Structures are given as C-alpha cells and as structure tokens.
Amino acid sequence: MRVALFVPCYIDQFYPQVAVASLELLEKLGCEVVVPKDQTCCGQPMANSGFASSTGGCDANFTTNFDGFDYIVGPSGSCVLHLKEHHPSQKIRSSVYEICEFLTDILKVSSLTAKFPHRVGLHQSCHGQRFLRLSSMSERNEKPFSKLQDLLGLVQGIEVFLPKREDECCGFGGTFCVSEEAVSVKMGLDRIKEHDANAIEFIIGADTSCLMHMEGILRRQGSNVQVKHIVEILNYD
Amino acid sequence: MVQKTMSSRDQILGKIEPLEPVQYPGAFTKASEGFDFMASLAVVGARVVSPSELEELFPGRRRFDKTMDGLSLADVEVLEIDGEFGVAENGAIWLTEEAMPHRVAPFICQHLVINVTEIVPTMHAAYARLGGVKSGFGLFLAGPSKTADIEQSLVVGAHGARSLTIVIRS
Amino acid sequence: MISHADASEIFISDSERTDWHDETLWFVRAKRDKVSKVLPEWEDLREHASQIKDHTLANLGEYLRAFEAKAQANGIHVHWAADAAEHNAIVHGIIASQSSKVLVKSKSMLTEECHLNDYLASKGIEVVDTDLGERIVQFRNEVPSHIVLPAIHLKKEDVGETFHQHLGTPKGNKDPQFLTEAARQHLRGHFLASEVAITGVNFAVAETGEFVVCTNEGNADMGAHLAKVHIACMGIEKIIPKREDLAVFLRLLARSATGQLITTYSSHFHLPREGQEVHIVFLDNGRTRQLADSKYKNSLKCIRCAACFNTCPVYRRSGGHSYHQPVAGPIGSILAPNVDKKANVDLPFASTLCGSCSNVCPVKINIHEQLWFWRQDLMSAGLAPAVKTVGMKMMAFVLANPVIYRLGGAFLRRFSGLLNNRLNPWYKQREMPVAPKDSFQEWYKKR
Fold first, then answer.
1. C15-29 confidence digits (pLDDT tens)
2. Nearest C-alpha of chain B: how many angstroms from C53?
3. What's the CATH fold of domain A119-234?
4. Is CATH 1.10.1060 the right assignment for the domain spanning C1-33+296-384?
5. Residues A173, B10: Cα–Cα separation, whole Å
C-alpha cells in the first residue's frame, strides 16, 4: 500500500523522532512510504487564530505535495482534523488520516513486535478524540471504545493509566497557549498532577502539540516524567 | 407607547424570514421505562409515609380549603393537598390550582403534604395524560424547596416548603 | 475593559480558589454525566430536542404569532421590544401604574442582558433579586458569574460577610444553612409586600399560550402568585411548538444543568389569577440578526442550562466575570459578538476548541464551530491587533514557501535559545522544546 507521510511543520523542526517512528512503523507494516519533500504546514495555526483567509498558500502547497495519494497519513490529530474540515480539495479531505486511525481502520493492525515495559499515562488529545473519534468521550452516553488503547494493548509489557479526569483538555489549544498563557498553563499543570498521581514514567498521546506543551511544564518543574508520541511506543523494539 | 410597541412587533416579525424548512420530529418514542417512583422521591428529597404515620407526624395539619387567601397562607404550618399523579422517572407530582386554596399554597406553607394515587412512568406519559390545558395554573413539583447557591452546599427550605411528605393512597 | 486573558490571569493568581472553583464545577458536570447515563435514550433525546428547536427557528415568526394570539385569548398582555432600551421602557411603563416602588424579580438572564435593575433604579424603583445566588451578588454590587449558579465565584466566608453587612447576621457565621434561612426570612417580607413580580421564562408553548418557569427555590412562584402584576420577560427564541415538547425539554434541562432529575418547581402559567395582570415582554435585541446568519442561528436553540460552562476547562479556571458579559462561558462567547463585535473580540479566543461544550449541549449547538467562525469574522472585520495581523500574514507567507520555511526552520533551531526570554509568553512558565540538530527532512535526505 502506497502512503504519503504528512509531517507537520513543528514535528519536522522540533520532534523529528516522531516522524522517524511513523515512517519506520508504516514500513514495518508493509507500506510503501513516500515523503513529499516540500511539505510545510496544514494551515491550522492561522485558521484557528481567525486567519483562515490567509491559508491559501499553505493549502496550495499541501495540494502540490500530496496530490494523487489515496492515503495521506500524519502523526497529529489536530493537523489532520484541520485538513479534513477545511482543506479546499475534496480529494485531500477524504484521503487524509491520523496515524492511529489509519493503523486501526485501514491497516487493521492486530499484532506488533513492540515492547515497552513502562508505566505510561495516556493523554487523549481533544481533536483526535472528539472529532476524529479515536476514542469515546466521557460526556457522551456511548459505548466506551479507544483505538489508542487497542493499539497499546498490542505492546508487550506496557502498563497504561488514565488520569482521573480521563479526557480533559491539556490547555495547549494552538495560539491559545500564548494568548491565554495563564489558563493554558494552569490546565497543563492540572493534567500533569493527575498523571503524576499514577506514578507514571511517560505521558503519551497522539498529538505532539499537547505533548510539547506538557513537556515544557514538566521540564520547568524539573520532573523526570518524559513525553512520547504513541507511534514511538508502537515502533519501540 | 402602544403605537411604538405595535411597530416593534411588525419590525421584529418582519425581520424573521422563514428559513429552510425543518421537519417537526413528532412525538418522542424512544423513552425507556421501568423507573422506580419511590427511588426518585428519595432522590428529590421527599419522604413517603403511610396514612397512619401521617396522622402521627402532622396531627394539626390544614386541609385544602378554598377560603384561604394568599397572605393568610403565610401562617400555615402544614398544608395537605391532592396531587393529580406522580412521575416515576423524576419524582415530580402534577398539581393544579383546582386542588389548592391559592396558587401560592404549595410554596408558602412551611411543610407540604401531597396525596398521590396514580403514577405514570415518564414526562412523555405525563403530558400524554394531561392532554390540553385544563387549568389556569399547574406545576410539576419534585421535593421540597432547595438551593445550593452557597458553595454548592445543598440546603433544603430556600423560599418554599421546608419539607415534602408524600402519602400514596389507593 | 479588561480582556478575558488578563482577567483570567488575576483569577488564577489565587490558585487555591481556582482549584476550588474548578473542582466544584467539575463535580456538577460529573453529576450531569451520571444522570444522563442512566437514560439509554439520552443521545436520542438530545437529537429530538435539537430537531424541535431547528424546526421552531425555521418557523419562528409563525410560532410567535400563534403564541401571541393564544396568550392574548388567555388574558395575557403581550409586548414586543426591539432592543434593551425598549424592553426596559415597557417594563417601567407597566410598573409605573402601580403604587409600589419595590418589586421582586426571580432569575432572568434576559433582564441582566438589558441591565434592567440599573434602569429601574434610575427611575426610583428598587428591584429585589430573589434567587439566593442573585441576591448575594446584588448585595455585593456584582453580576452573576454563572447563569445557573450566580454566586459560584464566592466562598461561604464571602457570603457570611456580605450578609453580616446587609442583613445583620452575626459576624463570622458562614454556615450555608444559617445564611439561607436568613435570606428566606428577609425575602419573605418582600414577597408578601410586592405588588409587582418579574420572572424569566424557560419555555413558551405556541400551541397553548402558556409559559413555563423552572426554579429550585420556589422564588419565581412566591413572587408571581402574591403580586398583583406579573411581568414575564423572554427572548423570542424561547418558543416551542407543542405542549408535549415540554416533556423532552424538562427531561433534559435539569439533568444537563445540575444533574437533578427535574427542577423542584416547573410551573405552567396559563391564565392570570383572578384579579391579576400578566404581561409578557418579547425581546429581540439582535436575535433576529443572529437568526438570519446561517453560521450562528443555531445558538438561538440554547435553553440556558449552563452545561457548557461546567464542562469548559477554560471557564472552570477563569471564572464567569472574566467573560465581562451577563452570559459567560462557551455559549456567552458565541452570543456576545453578535451584540458587539469590538467589545467581545477576545471571547471566541477564550477556548482551546476542545469541543466538550458541543457534546454536553442538550440541544446540540455546534458551539466549538461557532467559536471558530467568530474568530474568522472578527479578524476579517479588522479587529485584530496590528501585530497579530502582521505576524499571521508573515507566518502564512513562510509556511506557503518551502524554501523560506526550510531556512527559517534551520534558523529557529539554531537560535532557539533566543526565545528563552521573558517576552516570550510560552517561556514564562514552560521550557522551550529542545531543538534537534537536523529536521526530519534533513535526516530523511541523508537516510
């Protein structure tokens, strides 16, 4: 299966290991992975700040890079959601997948070779959870499910813990993290406190932006807790 | 004044364009059943007693009496009135003004006693039973008056009756 | 006016109180979750309520006319107010014919929207708010911080001190039971003496001309049934078509609001009491404008349960007053810009777009999407600070050009240490990410 790997700009620049793990994992699972080299950004930072009218250049560049692929896969729920909801091309909107969604729904992965003998706290990022429906929501009257937990169930030795409020937002929120700095940090601190209560070693999730925010707070606290994207775990031998 | 009000009416109605039609969904048909009226009464803070227990509890209570006016009711300690029916899903009881000395009666007395003989499962069944409007005033009443406006601490007896006692009579 | 972000920073500076506020409202949300999960039909009920409201809004003029005709036939006077000023003038006109200079009012966010109390005070008429929470904030010259729990920003110590000052309760007494009893005695005197009572309206039924008012305290009824004149103020969006629709809405309202099965009192006002005058005042105040915009008309489905407040992680940690509007929270943030874009430009940004609001909403308002639409409309209207507009345009330019993006990215990683300074809001309480030597694309080229 031919797959185009979508590497969001901030992952490309600051979290290349997430893109490396995505590439390796998809290849391990038998995909032919193409990495369009001139890709940049999905346009979400501008759009969520009220400047969707300025994303034409990003949209066009995305189309140039990803035209013709049936599967465009990226390790960031939020960026993928933006493309699904707002990219002008219908073909792009219907071809783009968040990586856990792709592993579960398209590749239907049922076994992995990964081992990760650690206590991890799972952060459910809102856009992946509530809009891409990667897992059920605590506020809905619906049957519980979680694509993330199903995938982590294939990893040997891992112990997965949810915080007390299992799906509260971490407070990243794009430019919210700087325009509403006080609330953003308070929300992050509260999430971390609940994860800490489970004596976890890692906070993991499917959205690097949330993890970047919580990592910033953890490092300022001098905490030993690290953050990892879920693909880094799924690809960990 | 009247002139201006008239023109605002026409102005407001004039600004409302009919939107793309949306079908009225009809009656709700997916209501579950099997609700426990007694359990709901407990949740809303009403106590249930037998007729003989009521005699012991409130020997000097006042019964429904059309001659009472609103203000004199302020001195009534315990008032007993008849409810039309109870709703199992939420412990609410439908009352109409015909069964009250005055509309303010169930609110202004210190303690309220309601006789209930019939129970319907849900609010859907309740409105189906009510049909059209037959009273000038009616209400669903569930439990005693309450508030949690100070630190979310539940306090019973805000402005209305301090307690609600239900007697189920056949 | 202080922006949401700045007001929040002040609110959060008392972290103990912020934690208390957050925990208390989360507890309310948890109660809502619990009761909603007892009903297997919950999500169908939300969908049904949403469809009734959509249908009503699509035919609002027709239903308003039908309600008016029925209500008038029932002996109720119906008034129409285009804006807040006219609403207040109508209410004053009705009161002026009475001798009393004091009136009782039960909770009505609409009268807060119109600043009715201030207006009547300027005419020499005192309004006594009778909802306990509203009376507390009224004593303190504050406004409600939550549409269902008006005094949720206060601790019992604050209420004790306020009652000590205004009702003469013993200094230091902060027992909620005791303070509530003091308010009961104080307000009972007003109920018995008032000739005029103002209430809000939760639902008005077009089919019958009746209106329904829901309270837990019983204050709306105490006021309305004892007064010679009852004035009920409502937004034009409170209409529902049929009486049986009340079953759907009364099942949803209290469960969504506080996790109760139903409010203690759901009173159906159909005919005036013998010798009583009943008036209904319909208010537009921008609602018809909102209705005409397909992006925002949905917000008029709101039944004011405040479930979106309680679930909102931003509201819980910033308090209602940071929204500087009578209706705070997520729903307030999509209602307020319709009335005044410039004054409320910050509100649609007071959200992470987490989407929990839309999923608790009992009438399925797409709140998070409307927040996003408002962001676009407000920025397109030129209401962004110049530095933000320039920043966004530059960012859009860089990200649209792969070559510049690569150069910029390399530069940023090389000199990321420069961002570790106090002008960078990220760095104030967070470390910057550690920049890797190679970007992913650089690594991939060498692979």
1. 999 999 999 999 999
2. 9
3. Rossmann fold (3.40.50)
4. yes
5. 45
